[in-house]
Amino acid sequence: MAVVAVIGAQWGDEGKGKIVDELAMRADYVVRYQGGNNAGHRVVHDGGEFSFHLVPSGILFPNTICIIGNGVVVDPKALLEEMEQLKQQGIDVSRLYISERAHVVMPYHFVLDRLEEESRTGEKLEGTPRGIAPAYVDKHARTGIRMSELSDVDAFRAKLSMILQQKNRMITQIYGQPALSLEEIHGEYFKYGQQLHTRVVDTQKMLHDALVEHKTILLEGAQGALLDIDFGTYPYVTSSSTMAANAAVGAGLPPRCIDRVVGIYKAYITRIGSGPMPTEIFDGTAEVLRGKGHEFKGNNGRERRCGWFDGVAGRFIAQINGLDAAVITKLDVLDTLPSIKICTAYNLRGQTIHNLPASPNDLAACEPIYEEVPGWQCSTTGISTYDELPEAAKNYLKRLEEILETPIVMVSVSPQRGKTIQIQDILTEPDHDNRYPETACANVIKMRGPRVWASHFDIFPPHPS
């Protein structure tokens, strides 16, 4: 049994969907614990290409139960459309369940999301206009609607009527837009509640029973950790906590049950939209990475910003999440480069720093301090074992391990399922006295020592006399 939290360790688009799909073959449960349909995970294999926005990436395996956790905000219309698309691709979605405590993204959330972004002066946040932020605002303001409430026709109507009066005042009086209809929203969303009724269950109990039965559970993050609401590059962040600490809360599990936290890093780094990005590349190398890495977002083909691997941000995420292991994706995208840069520190107004500044102005002022390493200039796409990698590629991975202070346990060399080098087994807890003996940071891992539950030692030792 293992409970493994899988998080994106950069600004998103690290390949979380592919890695969760690879691990889900041996998992009993896959749980989405935060975000909404502003997420986009892609899985490619012989059966085709699959896109996931709310449905966990483990749905492609017939024996894996998938759960949308209480920490997710659910657009029921988008969910039903996604389920239908998967059915048309031959995927069985009967094993999908939704937490009764998950909050609903309502029509007024879409409207307010768009109007609030349009009203911003200066640089826009450029988030997805899918109502995610207003839905989380209502959740914390205690004016949200939960999935379990959609199927109670009278109670839902009474609550919606009260909330909509407030929202319509904002929409009409502040933004000068037409009011939304209670009857239309109630009718549409009650219908969605009926369609999803059998899937809306007490998922906390399901997962508690799974723990008792020693099942393997994957906790799947939606957005990258550098977009975390607290520790990301605020305000250019998402509206929920993307950190491993939130994985237990967003899934409905006790925090001490998480056996391992795995961070997914791209071999370089990308970002979509606004916000500081110290290692961003503006020359032809960016076009090489963008073209070979297919760094385009969504149906409109919007380009992702590309940069060299940011070791400062990467180590910060490893530390704050307590990463036990790292996965490097898209190593093959670097195959043709004669040399590769790694950011190991920042120069902030003449001072060398090794930490991620909290201020966006300070981060924008940071100049990357690079270490340059030779490239390997040969294809890694068909490689299936670590030993087969070119020596320069191994040296690059070892240097990333040293900077992140985290062992690399998997390396992806293609978007295709199976094109992944497994160095260590993520789902099997190794001997703590000999964890990852081959890695460059073995001493760091040994220094951390074994995990000890509170019940195994005296939390409040006697005061020395």
Automatic annotation (TrEMBL):
Coiled coil: none annotated. Its EC number is 6.3.4.4. IMP binds at residues 13-16, 38-41, 128, 142, 223, 238, 302. One of its GO terms (cellular component) is cytoplasm. Its cofactor is Mg(2+). The keyword Transcription regulation does not apply. SUPFAM superfamilies: P-loop containing nucleoside triphosphate hydrolases. InterPro entries: Adenylosuccin_syn_GTP-bd (IPR018220), Adenylosuccinate_synth_dom1 (IPR042109), Adenylosuccinate_synth_dom2 (IPR042110), Adenylosuccinate_synth_dom3 (IPR042111), Adenylosuccinate_synthetase (IPR001114), P-loop_NTPase (IPR027417). The active site is at 13 (proton acceptor), 41 (proton donor). It is found in: Cytoplasm. Mg(2+) binds at residues 13, 40. Its main location: cytoplasm. PROSITE patterns: ADENYLOSUCCIN_SYN_1 (PS01266). Keywords: Cytoplasm, GTP-binding, Ligase, Magnesium, Metal-binding, Nucleotide-binding, Purine biosynthesis. It holds the Pfam family Adenylsucc_synt. GTP binds at residues 12-18, 40-42, 304, 330-332, 412-414. SMART domains: Adenylsucc_synt. It catalyses: IMP + L-aspartate + GTP = N(6)-(1,2-dicarboxyethyl)-AMP + GDP + phosphate + 2 H(+). Homodimer. Plays an important role in the de novo pathway of purine nucleotide biosynthesis. Catalyzes the first committed step in the biosynthesis of AMP from IMP. Belongs to the adenylosuccinate synthetase family. This is Adenylosuccinate synthetase. It comes from Dictyobacter vulcani. The gene is purA_2.
